[in-house]
Amino acid sequence: GPVTRGLLRPSPRTRRRGGTAHAGNSQQLVTAPSDSYSRTIGNYSYRMVVQYDGTAYRGWQIQQSGFPSIQGAIEHALWTRLREHREKLKIGAAGRTDRGVHAHAQVVQFYSDHEDLGEADTLYGINRLLPRDVRVLKLMRTAPDFNVTISPTNK
Length: 155
Prior knowledge:
The chain is of the alpha+beta class. Helices cover 18% and strands 28% of the residues. The chain has a 4-stranded antiparallel β-sheet with strand order 6-7-5-8, with helices on one face. It has a two-stranded antiparallel sheet with strand order 1-4. GO terms for molecular function: RNA binding; tRNA pseudouridine(38-40) synthase activity.
Protein backbone atom coordinates (compact mmCIF):
# COMPACT_ATOMS: atom_id res chain seq x y z
CA GLY A 1 0.00 0.00 0.00
CA PRO A 2 1.01 3.65 -0.05
CA VAL A 3 3.50 4.90 2.51
CA THR A 4 1.90 7.27 4.99
CA ARG A 5 4.04 9.91 6.68
CA GLY A 6 4.46 9.30 10.40
CA LEU A 7 2.85 5.85 10.46
CA LEU A 8 4.53 3.03 12.34
CA ARG A 9 4.70 -0.10 10.24
CA PRO A 10 6.12 -3.54 11.14
CA SER A 11 9.64 -4.15 9.94
CA PRO A 12 10.27 -6.46 6.96
CA ARG A 13 11.28 -9.19 9.43
CA THR A 14 7.70 -9.52 10.69
CA ARG A 15 6.85 -13.05 11.76
CA ARG A 16 3.44 -14.62 11.20
CA ARG A 17 1.72 -16.58 13.93
CA GLY A 18 -1.71 -18.06 13.39
CA GLY A 19 -2.34 -15.88 10.36
CA THR A 20 -1.59 -12.63 12.20
CA ALA A 21 1.50 -10.52 11.58
CA HIS A 22 3.53 -9.77 14.71
CA ALA A 23 6.41 -7.33 14.75
CA GLY A 24 7.14 -7.50 18.48
CA ASN A 25 9.36 -4.57 19.40
CA SER A 26 10.83 -4.30 15.91
CA GLN A 27 8.94 -1.38 14.43
CA GLN A 28 10.24 1.26 12.09
CA LEU A 29 9.07 4.78 11.49
CA VAL A 30 8.07 5.00 7.83
CA THR A 31 7.74 8.42 6.27
CA ALA A 32 6.97 9.70 2.82
CA PRO A 33 9.24 12.37 1.38
CA SER A 34 7.84 15.87 1.52
CA ASP A 35 9.26 19.16 0.28
CA SER A 36 7.77 20.97 3.26
CA TYR A 37 9.06 18.49 5.82
CA SER A 38 12.40 19.37 7.37
CA ARG A 39 14.61 16.60 8.75
CA THR A 40 16.62 18.97 10.93
CA ILE A 41 16.61 18.60 14.70
CA GLY A 42 14.00 20.32 16.83
CA ASN A 43 14.48 23.88 18.08
CA TYR A 44 14.42 23.10 21.82
CA SER A 45 16.63 20.77 23.84
CA TYR A 46 15.25 18.58 26.62
CA ARG A 47 16.92 16.33 29.17
CA MET A 48 15.46 13.22 30.76
CA VAL A 49 16.77 11.10 33.60
CA VAL A 50 15.97 7.49 32.77
CA GLN A 51 16.02 4.31 34.85
CA TYR A 52 15.77 0.82 33.38
CA ASP A 53 16.29 -2.88 33.87
CA GLY A 54 18.22 -3.92 30.77
CA THR A 55 17.63 -7.67 31.08
CA ALA A 56 15.26 -7.86 28.10
CA TYR A 57 17.23 -5.44 25.89
CA ARG A 58 20.25 -5.63 23.60
CA GLY A 59 21.71 -2.47 25.13
CA TRP A 60 21.04 1.23 24.72
CA GLN A 61 21.58 1.69 20.98
CA ILE A 62 18.95 0.84 18.36
CA GLN A 63 19.80 -2.46 16.69
CA GLN A 64 19.66 -2.90 12.91
CA SER A 65 18.61 -6.48 13.56
CA GLY A 66 15.37 -5.25 15.14
CA PHE A 67 16.14 -6.59 18.61
CA PRO A 68 14.71 -4.46 21.44
CA SER A 69 16.85 -1.58 22.71
CA ILE A 70 16.36 1.09 25.37
CA GLN A 71 16.81 3.87 22.80
CA GLY A 72 14.19 2.24 20.58
CA ALA A 73 11.66 2.03 23.42
CA ILE A 74 12.21 5.68 24.40
CA GLU A 75 12.16 6.87 20.80
CA HIS A 76 8.88 5.07 20.14
CA ALA A 77 7.28 6.59 23.27
CA LEU A 78 8.51 10.10 22.41
CA TRP A 79 7.39 9.82 18.79
CA THR A 80 3.96 8.59 19.85
CA ARG A 81 3.54 11.32 22.47
CA LEU A 82 5.06 14.28 20.58
CA ARG A 83 4.38 13.24 16.96
CA GLU A 84 7.82 14.36 15.77
CA HIS A 85 10.04 12.42 13.36
CA ARG A 86 12.96 10.48 14.87
CA GLU A 87 15.55 12.64 13.07
CA LYS A 88 13.96 15.75 14.59
CA LEU A 89 14.05 14.19 18.08
CA LYS A 90 17.74 13.15 17.74
CA ILE A 91 17.83 11.13 20.95
CA GLY A 92 21.23 10.71 22.57
CA ALA A 93 22.57 9.50 25.92
CA ALA A 94 25.48 10.38 28.19
CA GLY A 95 26.70 6.82 27.73
CA ARG A 96 25.59 3.60 26.08
CA THR A 97 24.93 0.41 27.98
CA ASP A 98 25.53 -3.12 26.72
CA ARG A 99 23.12 -6.03 26.54
CA GLY A 100 21.50 -6.80 29.90
CA VAL A 101 22.99 -3.77 31.70
CA HIS A 102 20.76 -1.68 34.00
CA ALA A 103 20.80 2.08 34.65
CA HIS A 104 19.55 4.02 37.68
CA ALA A 105 19.93 7.59 36.41
CA GLN A 106 21.04 7.73 32.78
CA VAL A 107 20.83 11.20 31.24
CA VAL A 108 19.14 11.28 27.83
CA GLN A 109 18.79 14.31 25.56
CA PHE A 110 16.26 14.91 22.80
CA TYR A 111 15.08 17.84 20.72
CA SER A 112 11.57 19.03 19.97
CA ASP A 113 9.83 21.84 18.16
CA HIS A 114 7.53 22.14 21.19
CA GLU A 115 8.71 25.13 23.23
CA ASP A 116 6.73 24.11 26.31
CA LEU A 117 6.05 20.39 26.67
CA GLY A 118 4.21 20.70 29.95
CA GLU A 119 6.85 18.54 31.58
CA ALA A 120 4.61 16.83 34.19
CA ASP A 121 1.96 15.81 31.64
CA THR A 122 4.57 14.75 29.08
CA LEU A 123 6.49 12.73 31.69
CA TYR A 124 3.30 10.90 32.65
CA GLY A 125 2.37 10.33 28.99
CA ILE A 126 5.80 8.98 28.05
CA ASN A 127 5.88 6.60 31.02
CA ARG A 128 2.44 5.24 30.08
CA LEU A 129 3.84 4.37 26.64
CA LEU A 130 7.10 2.81 27.86
CA PRO A 131 7.50 -0.84 28.87
CA ARG A 132 7.37 -1.36 32.66
CA ASP A 133 11.12 -1.96 32.85
CA VAL A 134 11.95 1.52 31.45
CA ARG A 135 11.00 4.71 33.35
CA VAL A 136 11.62 8.40 32.85
CA LEU A 137 12.23 9.90 36.31
CA LYS A 138 12.71 13.55 35.33
CA LEU A 139 12.10 15.70 32.27
CA MET A 140 13.27 19.29 31.84
CA ARG A 141 14.19 21.77 29.14
CA THR A 142 17.92 22.44 28.90
CA ALA A 143 20.09 25.40 28.01
CA PRO A 144 20.70 25.70 24.25
CA ASP A 145 24.39 24.80 24.69
CA PHE A 146 23.74 21.61 26.70
CA ASN A 147 25.25 18.51 25.09
CA VAL A 148 24.57 15.16 26.73
CA THR A 149 27.90 13.66 25.63
CA ILE A 150 30.20 16.50 26.75
CA SER A 151 28.27 18.39 29.47
CA PRO A 152 28.17 15.67 32.21
CA THR A 153 30.63 16.10 35.07
CA ASN A 154 30.59 12.37 35.92
CA LYS A 155 29.10 9.07 34.77
